[in-house]
Amino acid sequence: MAGGEAKMSQSKVLLKGVKKIYQGASGEVVALNGIDLEIKNNEFVCVVGPSGCGKSTLLNILAGLDKQTEGEVLVEGKPVNGPSGERGVVFQQYALFPWLTVRKNIAYGLHNKKLPKEEIDKLVEKYVHMVALEDFLDSYPKELSGGMKQRVALARAYAMNPSLLLMDEPFGALDAQTRAQLQADLLELWEEENKTCFFITHDVEEAVLLAQRVIVMSARPGRINKIVDVDIPYPRTQKTRLSARFTELKNDIWATVYNEYLE
Amino acid sequence: MDKKGKAVGKQQRSKQIVWVNMLYVLVSLAVILLLWRIVSTPGMKSAKVFASPAAVLEAFLAKVKTGKIWEHLGYSIGRVLVGFLLAFVAAVPFAFLMGWYEPFRRFFQPWISFLKCIPPLAFIPLVIVGAGVGENAKVIVIFIAAFLVMVITIYGGVVNVDNTLIKAARVLDSSDSTIFFKVVVPASTPYIFTAIRLGLSSSLTTLIAAELTGAQVGLGQMIQEASNYFNMDVVLMGIILIGLVGITFEKIVTFFEKRLTAWQEVRQK
């Protein structure tokens, strides 16, 4: 009993029998079925799977932007009830407010928290420094490249000091070089800031590079197919990609995700 | 130092652009004036329609001398502005309500679709019976014209607000009212400017048409009266003035638009 309690306090996210049904035009669509998952505090988890496997639905439910039809969704032991700054989200399409400067984008959520002005300024400074965009504080998003926009989005999410960071294919729209840079930045941040990361990607290599555990989902209905422990020590760099273990894990996961193409 | 140098270069380039633009305007003006001069040469058939530039200028100066022209302009612009502003003040909340509240939208959308097909001038007989032939009647007709076009345009903007931005705002601890005022409203400003532009131009066209069908004073009335006496110089002068009023409105709107929606990502021409 005591052991069970200790385990409870350690787990950040607990999903029990989560099911999500959408009312589609041609009847009910089961987007998720029987999802059981535990994510530990400070863990970095990647979710991969074919399109339509419900990975974004799962993220939206965790964010509180969507509600499960059945099952339990607990974050720090409390059921998720609507969105909150406690759970930061980074979207693939950056989702920066185009009418606000970089400074004001990062400060947006801090204003909603009703923090004093000096503290907002301090936090903006800190996180804009973290993503190395000090020279662009007063630029508008249209003046930034895709990679810079996503760095602002990361800073905006981090500034809220969320304990759980949800990322929906954040680097999916970036070119390979920028993506490698942002992966490195994100790993560094994660090691520094100790936040639990739930990261969705369709790129198996990216998942293996970043995550401690890779959750492989399959489609129709969306369910967890396999969970792979990535036993490669941190700090990981782009060099990690060259190791034999990396290739082995990558191939294993790739075959699970895309086995329909192997047959 | 380097930054400064760049800024100076930029300034010089923008100065050049201004000059090139001026040149284009001057050349096209000169060409059109020349053509106008040619078609208005006495003896040519087209001279019946086109009074010469000199005659039009003379007609204008004559009306300036009596002060009559300012009265016509003042009344027309005044009616347009009153009708337009009332329509704008009503259209903005109306369009946002349509975009934000399902029952409101469901109730009004069919009526908006129905009314937008009817030329506002068709309401004139009703308006005259209800409000007489005075200023109110004209303002009401302009109101109808501008209100409908602005509601439709702004509503289009409100429902097109990028859903990801709303989601982003929600996960950043925004209340509903914060989302509305800090996300939906700014995201809709480009559409509001398009609506203002469309609303002003339909106010102006509707007004002139309304004045043509009966008014004591106004540019439309001036044109109508002149055509009764076959004074084509005054007719042409009135037409040019209407165009100038329209361009002036457009420039004023663009001035504010550039300042308020500079954040927009626009395709470079």
Characterization of this structure:
The complex is a heterodimer of chains A (263) and B (269). Chain A has 263 residues and is an alpha/beta fold. Chain A has a domain at 2-86 and 195-262: 3-Layer(aba) Sandwich (Rossmann fold), CATH 3.40.50. Helices cover 38% and strands 26% of the residues of chain A. Chain A has nine helices and ten strands. The longest helix of chain A has 18 residues, at 176-193. The model of chain A is unreliable at 1-9 (pLDDT under 50). Chain B has 269 residues and is mainly α. Chain B has two domains: 1-39; 49-260, MetI-like (MetI-like fold, Orthogonal Bundle), CATH 1.10.3720. In chain B, 81% of the residues lie in helices and 0% in strands. Chain B has ten helices and no strands. Chain B has helices spanning 2-39, 53-66, 68-100, 102-116, 124-131, 135-159, 163-171, 176-212, 219-228, 232-260. The chains are: A alpha/beta (263), B mainly alpha (269). Chain A binds chain B through residues 63-65, 83-85, 87-89, 91, 93, 95-100, 108-109, 112-113, 140-142, 156, 160, and chain B through 162, 164-165, 167-175, 178, 182-183, 186-187, 189, 261-265.
